[in-house]
User: Fold Diguanylate cyclase from Massilia orientalis.
Amino acid sequence: MIPTDSDTATDFSLRALNLVNSGIIVLDAHHKIVLWNGWMVPRSARAAARVRERSLFEVFPELRGSRVEAAVLAALSPSADGASTTIPQSESRAPFPLRETGSFDGPRIDQAVTVTPFRDGEQRYCMIEIRDVSGAVEREKRLLDHAESLRARSYVDGLTGIANRRYFDVALDRELRRAQRAKGELSLLLIDIDSFKAYNDHFGHQQGDACLSTVAQALAAKLKRPADVAARYGGEEFAAILPDTSLEQARLHANAIRDHVAGLALPHAPAAHWPMVTLSIGVASFDRERLHEVPALIEAADKALYAAKRGGRNRVVVDGDASA
Ligand SMILES: Nc1nc2c(ncn2[C@@H]2O[C@H](COP(=O)(O)OP(=O)(O)OP(=O)(O)O)[C@@H](O)[C@H]2O)c(=O)[nH]1
Assistant:
């Protein structure tokens, strides 16, 4: 602290300034430091006597060209209007090389800096206030991390906008339990785009992604009941969960979906089995004796899907069909 006056009132004010829980620097019109409060001393590792009467920009050369310098020059110009300039931490994270007390090479304190011009008679000054906002920055980071992890764990597939595999797993488990409890029906469709490797090879991965989205939307549009679930099962494979739907009803649904996508006449690669984008679909239904658990139901639908592929693609095979 630099005593500027020995009278009691000034002494009293200076002592109070030394107790303030933020950095206070006062500069004269020549950018010379005339006040450096106690908060600054341990965090800058500079005693008041060492900086007295020195230019702020000599003490901290890195401030040259910074937002802080611009704010100081504006505050000390004869036309300064007395208004404060705040430099939020988001714009300039840590303009002053200040560290936690006792940490000589630790990370800098995150700072919010305010520069305020004032006059004493004809003399122009400016006060720089530096607040430690590290705690708020840390809290904000934690909130962002949390939001990010919620997003990552959410139930929507980022590419196609329909439910993701995570949601599918939860929904199938829930619907299977419900079917068991209610002695109801439940069908599962596993849906695979035919010759999709050839599609990617011919049109490129980006157009492949667009094709996946189109098929996903077409699938979602064909499922009308609120409890039906269309999901991306993985890669170029989709799934549909159809509660209260028998095997034969599911066969009809699957054929309608297959027809609809083939009818879109999306051009396929020359090396593909069909000239347009087509689907192979395997269907299986909950069955109290045989298919009453998730893995068994999925395996049955998958076997039917494989049979549809073997049978020439662009077709539906239902669990129990001779070819499945
Ligand atoms: N563009 C794109 N391609 C994907 C994505 N996920 C999986 N694929 C591609 O889908 C293709 C699937 O190929 P395969 O499993 O060999 O099957 P296929 O070519 O569709 O042949 P069949 O299923 O036998 O008709 C692979 O080339 C994967 O790279 C994705 O998110 N985007």
User: Anything to note?
Assistant: Residues 159, 192-198, 200, 205, 208-209, 212, 235-236, 309, 313 surround guanosine-5'-triphosphate (CB under 6 Å). The chain has a mean pLDDT of 92.
